[in-house]
Design goal:
The complex is a heterodimer of chains A (412) and B (498). In chain A, 33% of the residues lie in helices and 17% in strands. With 412 residues, chain A is α+β, with helices and mostly antiparallel strands. Among the domains of chain A are: 13-50, no CATH class; 285-402, FAD/NAD-linked reductase, C-terminal dimerisation domain (Enolase-like, domain 1, 2-Layer Sandwich), CATH 3.30.390.30. Chain A has a 5-stranded antiparallel beta sheet with strand order 10-11-14-13-12, sandwiched between helices. Chain A has a 3-stranded antiparallel beta sheet with strand order 7-8-9, with no helix packed on it. A two-stranded antiparallel sheet of chain A has the order 1-2. In chain A, helix 5 crosses helix 6 (126-150). The longest helix of chain A has 25 residues, at 126-150. The radius of gyration of chain A is 28 Å and the shape is globular. In chain B, the strands form 6 sheets. In chain B, strands 1, 2, 5, 6, 7, 8 and 19 form a 7-stranded mixed beta sheet that branches. In chain B, strand 14 and strand 15 (292-298) form a beta hairpin. Chain B contains 14 helices and 24 strands. With 498 residues, chain B is an alpha/beta fold. The chains are: A alpha+beta (412), B alpha/beta (498). At the A-B interface, helix 5, strand 4, strand 5, helix 6 and helix 8 of A face helix 4, strand 3, strand 4, helix 5 and helix 11 of B. Chain A: Its cofactor is FAD. Chain A: Residues 1-49 form the Glutaredoxin domain. Chain A: Residues 192-264 form the FAD/NAD(P)-binding domain. Chain A: Residues 284-395 form the Pyridine nucleotide-disulphide oxidoreductase dimerisation domain. Chain A: Keywords: Disulfide bond, FAD, Flavoprotein, NADP, Oxidoreductase, Redox-active center.
Chain lengths: 412, 498
């Protein structure tokens, strides 16, 4: 270990216990704080690293020289942003905050039914919202830069390079923000056409991988020409051995922040540490933060039928009425929960779906349970937390195959 | 005769010896009626979470079932309909008032998100109370309809045992009815405790039985107690803008993980609830203008102090409803320390065909979902072909304080007590595969977050498995699958941004 640090050019404080008068006391102390009885016992930046093996693993990470190149090509409208990627700047974070703004609008309406009284006139100010969100994102950009600096990672804000059907027409009627746009559109199923004027048209027709202008062809990295995605093996390696790919740019993997984070961490540990742990892309939970949120983990019903055949599946489902919606006067047959069970395998839960408030919060724990082999029996054996929405999964009785009515008529 | 009755009393046989309900309610007259010749297969005493679940399940299995439910008015005169504590003076109204308080917080948040709401913003207790009470009444009605649909006979009478198979029920009018059954389930639950040794306790103060049914705002309130009932009530009262004080004798949320309990309390303190710690009330007097003067003593200094409140709410625990059942007469044993009915793993009391479930039974969690499941399983064991018992391990629960606290499994204290300090790391067993023994979450929507992880624990989740689960982003619950810092490491768990 001493040689390792010397070769890395790292300055060390060395305490030789057998040469200290109270060496034994020190060793006892070390055992108490680190639960390690042996030497060498190593600390880096006051953090306990471990013994010899562990240190070699971590040093591999410590000692590596890392460069991050990040560059945001401005959108056609000219929008650009700072360090952090899609999630932080134009994805998860601003999305959830704006979703929250909308939910708060709903909460304002509900609150009157719960006894809150204030002026009927309630307006929303767009610029207050965007300013607050952009300030928050700015703070995140800043903290990422700080974090990279602290870890000794070199960051360069530069662009890196290795060397039909839905036909719509848009005409600008008025300049300005938001301006006026006239839109002509044609139905995909019949001859109908439509014509309408909007302030803003937002295209959300899918995302392209940023792989076309990286010069990948110069180094022989193959991509899927249709969608620009990069196929990799189960260790995120491309067809060029020393070139890896992770995140949204991958072929056939979920486009999600936590997946990318997990893959990135594990890849670094495999490359520079002594780890062999691969990223598990199976049963990744996710949530869609629509006004009525949708959380899910595992297979969709369609996919389950395709993979396992309908006769091998049992789908349990129910509508439910969140308690908080009762007094607010919101509909009692809107929220919905279902699980898809694989009969031959002890009714293993292979698909989990919930439509309702706080869907993400609910789904997370069930995802952990599914990773541990959740079955219908275990769900039935578990006590619900009352009153919550999540508890409906512990009392699912009606199957789709029975055809029985799941509409709620009031109370349980 | 008895042998013939036994032969005839097979499953599915409709023929049944009938006993006459005797006019005039004569005690002892029903003695000598043998088992199998009763009015009902099952009589459930108590129409709450456990009782109704048991009754409905038994009826579904084809049995003749009756439920008797009666609400003795509180000292303040509050009473309510069918459904038990949870529906009327527990979970349901509590969560709705908690939601009212949360919505107040959301109105404040809304400003930051661009919503322009003009001041003044105030809360009208009457509007909220009416909405809550109407909802509860609709649930009472729903339960009555359900019982009717399932052909369960319901009597609004106060029951007590005459003999092992017979109860006498008294209606509000005074009319008496005798009911007999092969099997009798006691599910009478509990009621809030009054400190009767404190002057004015009964006359002037209220409990959770009353708070949800008040027509007028309770105003400036003193909540005495450190239970989740105390903290939840104080929480929503503060949240809707009322001047609220909590008086505690010692620690908050006894039995819960103490680190989490302190955090819950700290949050309440920093958000407007006042706390009088280490104090006990000694007397309550009513002043001429109707306000209440409370005198209390600081246990450490011995100093006395007084304060004036509009309302005083006792939340110092609950006592089981066993006093008026005449249990001694039939030999059903209770624990003399807490008055709860002693039961075995099959929910059987000291009398073979008399059972007890829910809050009234000794050693059971005082929760609605456990009572419901116990009721269902009992019915299935008695009348179905089942032998399944309840598993009371790893029952998840949530305290709906302003900052919610959800938990499942062992508290840190319990884990250490059970496994020894050297074997515990973050309420996981240190020994591989580091089984998760307990999960504790403090934050919004704690109940929703905790439910799924309770399933994980039931599946025997290890720390590694939880860590291999990908997070859903952005949520609060993803933090659980990202837990890396152990208490043992001494590292700072403060989040510094993103």
């Amino acid at each position: 270990v001493k040689e390792l640090f010397s070769s890395l050019g790292v300055d060390c404080n060395i305490l030789e216990l057998d040469q200290l008068d109270d060496g034994i006391r020190v060793q006892e102390m070390l055992t108490e704080i680190t639960n390690q009885k042996t030497v060498p016992n190593i600390f880096v930046n006051r953090v306990h690293v471990g013994g010899c093996d562990r240190t070699f693993q971590e040093a591999a990470i410590l000692g590596k020289r890392v460069l991050v190149l990040d560059f945001v090509v401005p959108s056609p409208q000219g929008t650009s942003w700072g360090l952090g990627g899609t999630c932080v700047n134009v994805g998860c974070i601003p999305k959830k905050l704006m979703h929250q703004a909308a939910l708060l609008g709903q909460a304002l309406q509900d609150s009157r039914k719960f006894g809150w009284e204030y002026n009927q006139q309630v307006k929303h100010n767009w610029s207050t919202l965007t300013e607050a969100i952009q300030n928050h994102i700015g703070s995140l950009n800043w903290s990422y830069r700080l974090s990279l600096r602290e870890k000794g990672v070199t960051y360069v804000n530069a662009y890196g390079e290795f060397v039909d059907h839905h036909k719509i027409k848009i005409q600008q009627l008025e300049r300005g923000s938001p301006g006026k746009l006239k839109v002509w559109a044609k139905s995909t199923e019949g001859p109908e056409t439509m014509e309408e004027v909007y302030n803003t048209v937002l295209l959300a027709i899918g995302r392209d991988s940023c792989t076309r202008k990286l010069g990948l062809e110069k180094i022989g990295v193959k991509i899927n020409e249709k969608n620009g995605k990069i196929p990799v093996n189960d260790t995120e390696q491309t067809n060029v051995p020393h070139v890896y790919a992770i995140g949204d740019v991958l072929e056939g993997k979920p486009e999600l922040t936590p997946v990318a984070i997990q893959a990135g961490k594990l890849l670094a540990r495999r490359l520079f540490g002594a780890s062999s742990e691969k990223c598990d892309y199976m049963s990744v939970p996710t949530a869609v933060f629509t006004p009525l949120e949708y959380g899910c983990c595992g297979l969709s019903e369609e996919k389950a039928i395709e993979v396992y055949k309908k006769e091998n599946l049992e789908v349990y489902h129910t509508l439910f009425w969140p308690l908080e919606w009762t007094i607010a006067g919101r509909d009692n047959n809107t929220c919905y929960a279902k699980i898809i069970c694989h009969k031959p395998d002890s009714d293993r839960v292979i698909g989990f779906h919930i439509l309702g408030p706080n869907a993400g919060e609910i789904t997370q724990g069930f995802a952990a349970a599914m990773k541990c082999g959740l079955t219908k029996q275990l769900l039935d054996d578990t006590i619900g937390i009352h009153p919550t929405c999540g508890e409906v999964f512990t009392t699912l009785e009606i199957t789709k195959s029975s055809g029985l009515d799941i509409t709620q008529k009031g109370c349980g | 005769m008895a042998a013939m009755a036994a032969v005839l009393r097979g499953p599915g046989r409709r023929f049944r010896w009938r006993t006459q309900a005797l006019a005039g309610g004569v005690r002892g007259a029903a003695r000598g009626v043998a088992a199998g010749q009763q009015d009902y297969d099952l009589l459930v005493i108590g129409g709450g979470s456990g009782g109704l679940a048991c009754a409905k399940e038994a009826a579904q299995l084809g049995r003749k079932v009756a439920v008797v439910d009666y609400v003795e008015p509180s000292p303040q005169g509050t009473k309510w309909g069918l459904g038990g504590t949870c529906v009327n003076v527990g979970c349901i109204p509590k969560k709705l008032m908690h939601q009212a308080a949360l919505l107040g917080g959301m109105i404040q948040d809304a400003h930051h998100y661009g919503w322009e709401v003009a001041q003044p913003i105030r809360h009208d207790w009457r509007k909220m109370a009416e909405a809550v009470q109407n909802h509860v009444k609709s649930l009472n009605w729903g339960h009555r309809v359900q019982l009717q649909d399932r052909k369960v006979k319901y009597f609004n009478i106060k029951a007590s045992f005459i003999n092992e198979h017979t109860v006498c029920g008294i209606a509000k009018s005074g009319k008496e009815t005798l009911l007999s059954a092969d099997h009798i389930v006691i599910a009478t639950g509990g009621r809030p405790r009054y400190p009767t040794h404190i002057e004015g306790a009964l006359e002037y103060a209220i409990t959770s039985d009353d708070i949800f049914w008040l027509k007028e705002s309770p105003g400036k309130t003193l909540v005495v107690g450190a239970s989740y009932v105390a903290l939840e009530c104080a929480g929503f009262l503060t949240g809707i803008g009322l001047d609220t004080t909590v008086m505690m004798r010692s620690i908050p949320l006894r039995g819960f993980d103490q680190q989490m309990s302190s955090l819950v309390m700290e949050h309440m303190e920093s958000h407007g609830t006042q706390f009088l710690k280490g104090c006990i009330p000694t007397c309550i007097k009513r002043l001429p203008d109707g306000q209440l003067q409370v005198t209390w003593e600081d246990r450490t200094s011995g100093k006395k102090d007084t304060g004036i409140f509009d309302t005083v709410l006792w939340a110092i625990g609950r006592i089981p409803e066993t006093r008026n059942l005449n249990l001694k007469e039939v030999g059903v044993n209770i624990n003399p320390e807490n008055q709860k009915i002693i039961v075995d793993a099959q929910d059987v009391t000291s009398v073979p065909h008399i059972y007890a479930i829910g809050d009234v039974a000794e050693g059971r969690p005082e929760l609605t979902p456990t009572a419901i499941m116990a009721g269902k399983l009992l019915a299935q064991r008695l009348f179905g072909q089942s032998s399944d018992l309840m598993d009371y391990n790893n029952v998840p629960t949530t305290v709906f304080t302003p900052l919610e606290y959800g938990c499942v499994g062992l508290s840190e204290e319990e884990a250490v007590a059970r496994h020894g300090q050297e074997h515990i790391e973050m309420v996981c067993l240190k020994k591989p595969p580091q089984l998760v023994l307990g999960l504790h979450f403090l934050g919004p929507n704690a109940g929703e977050v905790t439910q799924g992880f309770a399933l994980g624990i039931k599946c025997g989740a290890s720390y590694a498995q939880v860590m291999r689960t990908v997070g859903i982003h952005p949520t609060c619950s993803e933090e659980v699958v990202k837990l890396r810092i152990s208490k043992r490491s001494g590292l700072d768990p403060t989040v510094t941004g993103c």
